[in-house]
Design brief:
By secondary structure, the chain is α+β, with helices and mostly antiparallel strands. It folds into two domains: about 5-225, Zn peptidases (Aminopeptidase), CATH 3.40.630.10; about 240-345, Beta Barrel (OB fold (Dihydrolipoamide Acetyltransferase, E2P)). Helices cover about 25% and strands about 30% of the residues. The protein contains eight helices and 19 strands. A hairpin with a 7-residue loop joins strand 15 (about 270-275) and strand 16. The protein is globular.
Length: about 350
């Protein structure tokens, strides 16, 4: 049994305890503290320290919903280690229903931060130095940007064995390879020796129960893998690994008719969207340039030339599309997410009489 008392953000946390505390990150115009609420939970035994964060972009709330479900649920127990749960990391953006900080900077491009830099750099420095060096692993929960939605997917540097293990164990069903943008929280944390993954799902300004449930299962999967919780991870039989992605963009202005939903598989040459004028005339069609999975898409049907419409991840083998469909069909949480996200846009069958105009 771990008897050592740990000090977190000015509070002492004993083995087996859960303590609500806060991390002061800055001051307001009225010189009052700006603080991030944090729940620190410890198991009875020694073990890894893991952070789970959400709303690093202040309007991305599905992860917030998932963490709040963990906080309000007394049915699960932490057997070992220490878990930091941060429902809202970017409190200044959250209070303004904004992705960004008040100075319009993206906090997720400012890590590991600078104590003498801009507001964003200073906030990033405090957050990073207070959390990352003391943690062994991290999970950062996100959604798509405004006017877009994403099918739940994990993003990790698959060349890092620890990150790969986290992403595979999370069990979202889709894994995207990449280190992350320069200055991002997960890239900076991983570079500092704390393997961290990002999980994307759903859209901004809401908590979508199907997406939050996927995130919740994934966090518990990781904790079980690390032996911080009892039980075995609930991981889909197959997971698609994506190493190449592409946004399919509108070629002409008009009103889009979508032929796919986030989470659908597509084959090369398949119609994914059509657009026309407001009287449904002068139609043209966008096609998938390769076989893959629809990772995300716009939820705004009106477009101008060059605007992103559908985000597709390439599959190395066209047969993988069928395996992805079978995997989703056999996994209750993924299937529910697919059904839910399909209601965010109007999905119709393509008109085969339309002129065949590809996006390439």
């Amino acid at each position: 049994m771990s008897s050592k008392v740990e000090s977190w953000f000015g509070c002492e946390v004993k083995a087996g305890e859960a303590v609500s505390t806060e991390l002061v990150i800055s001051e307001s115009y009225s010189s009052r503290d700006v603080a991030i609420p944090i729940r620190v939970r410890r198991g009875l035994e020694s073990g890894p320290t893991v952070f789970v964060t959400a709303a690093l972009h202040g309007d991305e709330l599905n992860g917030t919903g998932a963490i709040r479900s963990m906080l309000s649920d007394d049915s699960w127990e932490l057997r070992s280690g220490t878990l930091l749960m941060v429902p809202v990391l970017n409190v200044l953006g959250f209070e303004r229903h904004s992705r960004y900080l008040p100075d319009r900077r993206d906090l997720n491009r400012c890590f590991p931060g600078n104590s003498t830099g801009s507001m964003a750099s200073r906030l990033a420095k405090v957050i990073f130095d207070s959390i990352v060096p003391r943690c062994d692993f991290g999970i950062d929960l996100h959604t798509a940007a405004v006017r877009r939605t994403n099918f739940p997917n994990a993003r990790a540097d698959l060349d890092n064995d620890a990150c790969r293990n986290l992403a595979e164990t999370f069990g979202s069903g889709i894994i995207l390879h990449g280190k992350g943008p320069k200055g991002s929280f997960r890239r900076s944390a991983t570079d500092a020796g704390c393997p961290t993954i990002v999980v994307e799902g759903g859209e901004v300004w809401k908590v979508e129960s199907a997406v939050a449930e996927c995130m919740l299962r994934g966090v518990f999967n990781v904790l079980k893998m690390l032996k911080m919780m009892d039980g075995e991870p609930d991981i889909p039989n197959r997971q698609a690994v994506i190493r190449e992605t592409k946004w399919i963009r509108a070629e002409r202005g008009g009103f889009m008719s979508m032929h796919v939903a986030a989470g659908d598989s597509v084959v090369k040459g398949q119609a994914i969207a059509s657009n026309s004028n407001l009287l449904t005339e002068d139609q043209n069609r966008l096609e998938s340039p390769f076989s893959g999975i629809v990772l995300g898409m716009t939820t705004l049907p009106a477009v101008q030339p060059g605007e992103p419409v559908v985000y597709i991840g390439r599959l190395a083998n066209p047969k993988s599309a069928q395996r992805h469909d079978e995997n989703v069909a056999n996994d209750d949480i993924q299937r529910t997410a697919l059904e839910h996200l399909a209601t965010n846009v109007q999905v119709t069958e393509p008109d085969e009489s339309e002129p065949d105009v590809s996006s390439d």
